[in-house]
Structures are given as structure tokens and as C-alpha cells.
């Protein structure tokens, strides 16, 4: 990466972290201070290793200070002998490795000793995979050419080198970072320091050599900043952590390209003290606060979701585990009773518990489910089925035949046999559901052949709008469950791009629901999650560039609380902190329906 003055100005305008460059290598600074020198760096797959050397009593000794020299810690024993073995075993056949020898004693006598010792290691000096670079005390630049072809030098100046032969002997340019900034690696560089540092990098690159700072802050924020700014060798005392972090950024940094147009509700019916007619419950599977935050920040800093005023938090623990699964959480919300993980609509003893669709149907409601999962998935099936284990898919599918539902839209499933026996008229196009006059309707989401993300993220919104239209045309009030299921799937996969796109897809559906609630003025909307997935954090990003850097701590669910948003009549009842099963109790209390089973 090269910087012109115009580029620097642009970077200053848009911010430091405007994307991620892969043009970097990792330099294991003072590698000999690692608990396992050389091998630890090689295992981390660094590209450069630094060793400080003193020439004392005819030996090349490895140490940071003269008084720290130990008898057996020589350049040969710590680095040259094992490096010879590495080459013999062909362990770095597809990699390049730079061995930087930082000379701490007289340049001429020490480098002569290095050259003499290296005569015993032709496998190293003749290798196309290994380069020897002398740093620290060095001869004059014009004297570089006096040394063997396999010896290169670390140039520590920004002054031009006009002699091409001397320039050819320069392997890299290195400077102290502290000369240009006192940044400690937390937060970000100031605009002034960023300008200074960027100008140094640009000037160093005018020599057409790789560049390194030493005396750098050693943190994730610093590593990313230096890589983004075009530093070729990232200096670190934590080689494994540095390589792991930087190499993972390509999978953890996403620039969003699809957006949810933010809808601002009228709030005319919000928090009014009256019993609502309809209930729409929206569950973003695995959609914790950080997932929501990632979508908000990638969507210009706002979503339709963030316009709402009635906000609470629910605790998600199941009856038998600190960390719930979707079945335990779905059943708690659907039935008002905490149960064991994997249970679908059954209590801790395996007995069936009445769920919302059943209770509300008995009280004059039409009910429906829309999910981007299969209809037999753990969350949606908790609202119509009664089985002791979520893996009992065939039995769950049979429960659909006896369900009180008037509508379902889901991903296709091969486990639902003879769906027509359940009385659903199946539609081949979800956009036709809204105009249907059939008594019971079902439809499958079908994979689009279109590769445009915009089309795919709109599917749930289209299905939601049609499901609402279908149910609203009936004379009865309705309850509708809408699930954005794939936020959870991408969380399990630690795929931040998928998480953001599915969260935005969910918000597009929220927009349709809020528009209906405003037009209807008598619909209560509850938006929540069953649990958080992935242990997601978002340490850095750039709102202007719709960029998110994600970090996941697990491929599984976590036990953190998840938000609840509500809108419409009595939405204020969902504020506060409470258990997930209380959503059921609050809903029935608002609807003045007895909770006695």
C-alpha cells in the first residue's frame, strides 16, 4: 500500500479504520525472549524473526543486555542449528523467513564473526526461503556491498539511497514509532499523529522497500491500524496472537452492502392503556444486543427497531441449564413455563403444556407462523407442537396436522408428509398468500437463483406483509409469530457478514410490521430474541463505510440477557428486566385471558 498526500487527506476525513489491507507480514520482535525461541514464531507462521547478538569472547551470544548473557545461549544453538533442521525437514518450503540479527557490539567485528559462522551453514545461506538481515550496529551504507550476497541490511533512515548496488543490499526500512507518536495502542491515533505516521510510511515506501516500526504499541488495535496504514512488517512480542488476529480479519471485517430503510412510527397507539386486538411476536433467533448493534452501525447508525421506546431485557436460562437452546427458550416464551433444553412444548416432566396459539385460538384468535427456518425447527414448533425432544422431527411434523394454525410460511422440509391432510392450501409463491381467501394457507420459501443480496434480505419482509394481509382479512383478531431464524445459523458459523445481512433482513420485516401497526392502531408488537449466539463483540468498525469488525468467543449460544422491544397498546408492560417466560404471562394478562392451565 502506498500513500499520496491526497490519499492521506481522504483517510483523515473518513477515519483511521477504513478497511483492511492484507499487505503485511509479522515480525517477532526480540524473539529470543519467548519461552521457546524460534519454534514458537515458526509455529505462529511469522515472516520475520529478530535476535539480539553480542560478540563476546569469540562467540556470538544471544541476549537483550550484556549482563544477561548465558553460557549456552548462542546464535548457533538457539537459531542456526534449529533453522538448519527446519530446512532439512522442508518445514518452510512454501514460506519465506527473514532472520534479523540485531548487532549490539561493534558492527565490523560482529558481522565478520556472523559471516564466518554462517560458512558452516550453506543450507541456510543458499536457501531461497531464508534471508539474513543485519540490524542494529551496521557499517556505512556504501560498505554494504562488501559483504556476501546472502547478507542484507536493515536501513534506519528516510534519506534516499542513490547507489543502486547499495540499495539492492537493503532488505527493509525500520524506524522507531515513538519518534512520531506516543500512542499506546488503545483507542485510535489522533488526527495529528495519524498524519505524521502516514507521511513517514509514505516516505519510507519511496525507497521501494518493506517498512517496519519498532518500539510500537502491541495490541489488536495497533496491529490493525498498522496493517491498514501499509506497514509491511508488523512488530510484535506476541507472535501467535498477532498472526491469529490479523489472519482472521478477512473473515471478521465486513462492509455492508444491503440496507434497511428506517421507518419512524407515529406512536399514536404506542403505550396506550387499552387491550390490543392483534399480537405480532417477532423473534430474531440468536439476535443478541451485539448482533443488533452490528446491524445498526452497518446500517448508517439506525434501524426501524431502534425507533421504539418501550425496551426491556429478558433472562434466557432454561430449567436445566445456564445456557438455553432454542427449544427451551421457545417453549418458555410460547407456554409461560421454563423447561429443559430440547423440550418442545413440554414441561420438565415431559407433559404437554398449552401454548399461545392454542390458548389464543380458544379465545377467538386466528394464528399463524412465519419462519426462515423449517416449520419443524425448534423455535416455531414450540408454538404448535408437544414433543420431549427437538430431534423428534417426524413427530413434530405430525403435530402440525393437529395445530390450531391458519397459516404457516417456512423453508421447505422433507419431514412434513401429506401436508394437504392438515388442510393447508399450499402456495408456490409467498407473494400470493396475502390475497388468498382460503381458510388455511401454507407456503415455502424457495431459494432464489438471483445472487443479489438485496432480493434475499427482503424475503422475510415480503412473507411478513403477506401473512399479515391474510390474517387481517379474517373477521377475528390474530396472533402471528415471525422468526428470523438464520441470524442464529450465521452466529454458530461465526459469520459476521451473514449476521449483519440477516439482522437487516429482520429489520425489513420489522418495518412492515410497524407500518401495519400504525395503520391498524390496535396491534401490539413484541420484538425479542430467544438467546444470543456466538458471544459476539464488535471492537472496531467505521459507520461511514458501513464496516464492522467482529470477534466471536464461541460457536454456541451464550447466557447473556437479550433485549425486548415493544410497540402499540400496552407496550409499556414489556419494559424492565424479567425472565423470558414472563412474555407469555404479560401477553395473556394484557389480553385479559386467564393463565390457569
Commentary on this structure:
With 597 residues, this protein is of the alpha/beta class. The chain folds into two domains: 5-250, Phosphatidylinositol (PI) phosphodiesterase (TIM Barrel); 278-411 and 448-590, Alkaline Phosphatase, subunit A, CATH 3.40.720. It is 32% helix and 21% strand. The longest helix has 25 residues, at 496-520.
SSE layout:
Blueprint: H1 5-14, E1 25-28, H2 39-44, E2 48-56, E3 59-62, H3 75-88, E4 97-103, H4 107-118, H5 122-125, E5 130-136, E6 151-155, H6 164-168, E7 170-176, H7 191-205, E8 211-214, H8 220-229, E9 233-236, H9 239-252, E10 253-255, E11 278-284, H10 289-298, E12 310-315, H11 326-335, H12 356-362, E13 366-374, H13 378-381, H14 393-402, E14 407-411, E15 425-427, E16 441-444, H15 453-457, H16 459-472, E17 478-484, H17 486-492, H18 496-520, E18 523-528, E19 532-533, E20 536-542, E21 547-552, E22 557-558, E23 562-567, E24 576-579, H19 582-590
Parallel strand pairs: 1-2, 1-9, 2-4, 4-5, 5-6, 6-7, 7-8, 11-17, 11-18, 12-24, 13-14, 13-17, 14-16, 15-16
Antiparallel strand pairs: 2-3, 10-21, 12-23, 18-23, 19-22, 20-21
